[in-house]
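As a warm-up, study this chain.
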Amino acid sequence: MKILFLLNTYINTIIQLSILIPKVYLFDIVIENTEEALLNLEKSFRTNTIYEEGVNIYFPEPYYDFSLYDIWEISLNVEHPLNCISTSANKTILNYGETKKYGLSFFYIFDTVQTVTFSGFIFINHASEVFAITTFVSNDIFHIVFDNCEFIDFKGPLLTIQMTGIKCILDTKDFYQVEFNNCKFLNMTPKNLGLIYTATTDITHYNDKFPKCITVKVSNSIFQKSKNLFNLERGNLYIDNCTFEEIDSIDILNYSIIISKNTNNHITIKNSIFKNNKINRNINFFNLYKANIE
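Now compare it with the structure written out below.
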């Protein structure tokens, strides 16, 4: 049974009523405007815990301004699929307004793969030096997908994968925990950690020889005029059919495209183009510690 609600200031009442319907498996929400609807966006994310087939959040308008709202962070356990989808004729712009607000934190604590998807968005002007999206995991059972998205003028990491006591559970081959498909990255200048950061809290994992079962895949994407793209403390990176142009580094980091800090991280680069990247400050494109690269 599929229910379609327009998200508005009465979403609390709507959600409470929908819980009383015993066979609701999929919940659809339409974000109609930024004046009132985004004030309740946190509540719509949290409905993910209720519906077994997940929550679809649709953005039909071409522009939403997040800078108007005092939301510092949304944290939620991913229990079922969550799909954020632009239905605008073109992509939907989500403008952070150069604020340090509105970060998303996803906690994966269950033993089945649930996917979080962002499709057809342009994320611009995120000024936080800490995070835009953070995922907390203790195993490889999670899946985050960015499809046909653009990221412009970020001052901090776009995505941080925070790993604690990682265990490799999945046997699925060619499975990628994080995917960027048909995306564009422009003027991304993270100030300390790198744009996409796979972090481990266990210092003993820096030089281990355990299999690396968490992989970030980037395909058919373009990176332009950006800095310090991939910081891999532990994990793999798969790049296919991408273009890297005018990539540079900030002064405190000693790489511009990839740094790999862990023995046996596996890095694959296929069918990709590197052009006009900057080396005038004696900065490495790749800074690899005993990584497997092909």
